[in-house]
Amino acid sequence: MDLRLPSIRLAHTRRPRPRSGRLVRCGISEPSGEPAPVGQKTKYNDGFFERAFMSLFARKMEKFGGDAGGRGGNGLRWYDYEGFVDVSRRVMQGRSRKQQQEVVSEVLPSMLPPGAPAQFRKLFPPTKWAAEINAALTVPFFHWLVGPSEVIEVEVNGMKQRSGVHIKKCRYLENSGCVGMCVNMCKIPTRDFFTNQFGLSLTMTPNFEDMSCDMVYGQIPPLFEEDPVSKQPCYANICSVANPNSTTCPKLQG
């Protein structure tokens, strides 16, 4: 039986996604609460709590990617966002697509208290209400990771609901400049984490033209082989490990 739901329809206009992957990174925009235009890098003013989340996540990843910078004198190293992305990049190197996803899938549950997934399933059964609550919580709690976002109305299985989140310009994709890191270390592990650990389906659809992304809670994601992202080429001009001669990002093939 095919349990996958029909494709969602977003309530806002989407631009087409060209597959050239050719963006040019330029200067840094001053912080304004909104992401910088394509071609400019958004500037963030991270505070204590943002740095704490970055450092916690990065330290969890260190054992897989190595600690290139060493630890601080108190045994705990504080990371900025660039350092957090650098740890992710080191985890990616030398690993296949599946291995990269497995690392993040192991790290994500380790950041939660024991028994948290089971409690989540009790509090948030897979209903429209649960999907909408999680969309609302994503905006403030994931701002440090993905940047500014907003809740949007979507259509899931013929039903309109406010369980979508539009990430205006993903901070992780913007800073890594890497299609493979976006897919293998964010999109796939995050959707599998919510779907398998929390029992709440999640679909993530990045737009590699403007670096935005749509998250839809309650929508069962497609198989990787059927997802257009599986054929996405590199950002030839901004990715440090890009292969401009390949029609598909090599990190999506292994």
From TrEMBL:
InterPro entries, per the entry: D27-like, D27-like_C
One Gene Ontology MF term: iron ion binding
Composition skew (Basic residues), residue ranges: 11-22
Positions of the Beta-carotene isomerase D27-like C-terminal domain: 144-225
Signal peptide extent: none
Coiled coil regions in record: none
Disordered: annotated segments: 1-41
Name listed for the protein in its UniProt record: Beta-carotene isomerase D27-like C-terminal domain-containing protein
Taxonomic lineage: Eukaryota, Viridiplantae, Streptophyta, Embryophyta, Tracheophyta
